[in-house]
Amino acid sequence: FPPCMHNILKGIRDGKKRSAFILVNFLTMVGWPYDKIEALLYEWNKRNPEPLRETVINSQLRYHKQMKKRIMPPNCSNAMYYREFGVCTPDAFCQRIRNPANYTLLKIKMQSNAREAMKGRKLTDDEKLKRKTAREMQKKFREDIKIRKERGELVEESI
After folding, report:
1. What is the pTM of this model?
2. How many CA atoms lie within 13 A of 115 on its CB side?
3. How far is the C-alpha of 116 from the C-alpha of 114, rounded, in Å?
């Protein structure tokens, strides 16, 4: 996800209605099903200092489900979004895109192309070590998540 989506998902003070609109459009564009979007929106709303009423979230979801086509979230340059409520913190990749959905879609495409280029090539010892270290870190992370869920510290794994 682009930095702006991560910032929104942390919970925000201002721009919550616009953010709900952004999140639904963004997540549908990158292929999320509505049941996952709905669960994420309710979890996100709990992180907001002053949560939105559930009716606002329900109406956003109902509106988007009734539409026949998916709509891109607002472009990064749109003054009414992102920068206005302080979630625009661009990284180096943001300079190459105009829309948050394109950020994710291009990153996925780049990763897929990199995997394709790696097929059939033998890994160097350094690459093998990096892969092993990454797998160990992932295992520790999953174990930590499991422990935190058992303690009741986490309701659902976040993005």
Report:
1. 0.71
2. 6
3. 5
